[in-house]
Amino acid sequence: MAVNSAAIRWLGDHLQLLDQRCLPTETLWLDIRDSQQAADAIRNMVVRGAPAIGITAAYGLALEAQSMGNDASWVTLQNAVATLADSRPTAVNLFWALERLQRYAGDLQGKALAQALAEDAEAIHREDLAANQAMGEFGADLLPSGATVYTHCNTGALATGGHGTALGIIRSAWARNQLTGVFAGETRPWLQGSRLTSWELLNDGIPVTLVADSCAGQLMQQGKIQAVIVGADRITANGDTANKIGTYNLAVLAQHHNIPFIVAAPVSTLDPALPNGSHIVIEERDANEVRNVQGKSLAPEHCPVYNPAFDITPAQLITAIVTERGVVHCPDTAKINSHLAQTKES
Predict the structure, then answer these.
(1) Catalytic site residues?
(2) Is the pTM for the entire model greater than 0.85?
(3) Among the four 44, 244, 282, 306, which has the fewest Cβ within 10 Å?
(4) 3-133 CATH fold
């Protein structure tokens, strides 16, 4: 059965991804037919956002099994698994999806294995949409009436199976008439806030004002922000959170101005195997992403660049973590463990 969302279309024998590098000026869909193409799309930012990366990796592995026919087995798929796992190291949903597929497939081989992987990839896709909608309702409960919120990067339908994580909370709150508007930081160096978040919100008719990343402190000082809502690519056992570079800055500013700082992510983003954020591998990307924007040079050609894709926000700066199972207020190790235990029981 075909499963479609804003950025991912599963057509049974191939995958289509909306090339998010081209938005908002061009809508271009790319055909993905094997694990290498899926990994390249993840690495090169055709698709981005932790949930969407996990979904894409799941479909990529299913396609690889299809291409192998009767030779497909978990042993023969190991090169594909490694290729997908290596595409972006920080987003835990990627590894979660691959591990889930292995458990689901069991000892199946050949076409039966390919069919099972495709079925579970579709299930991951559908479940993520449902999780986002639940997350949106839980998160909207945390916002006061008439709030104006600040968000960073893109955490909407483009980054997930649909609806969104942090942007899903914003969508749900807007549907309840709770929000006055949204400030979206541009999110250098890939400008996901200006290119993608503003595009999604404008299409939904939600009032959004785009600002330079360096404007956030000024807005908070002026009393124009009632909450900061962001997503996450990995959350460790104690509640430390990896998210798009610049998130830590916002958390520090929010604490100084006594503004709630809310993180939205599915349970699959929680990584209890890592005790705290110091154990998270932070992806460092090409220097030209900072030196250039869409081919236009912004810096001397050989200027040294430090370009981490993510930073770590300590749990002490986080007001609440919202998942599809509920809210973890003032997260710490005990509360994260309790949340995960409740998830397993349900």
Answers:
(1) 233
(2) yes
(3) 306
(4) Four Helix Bundle (Hemerythrin (Met), subunit A) (1.20.120)
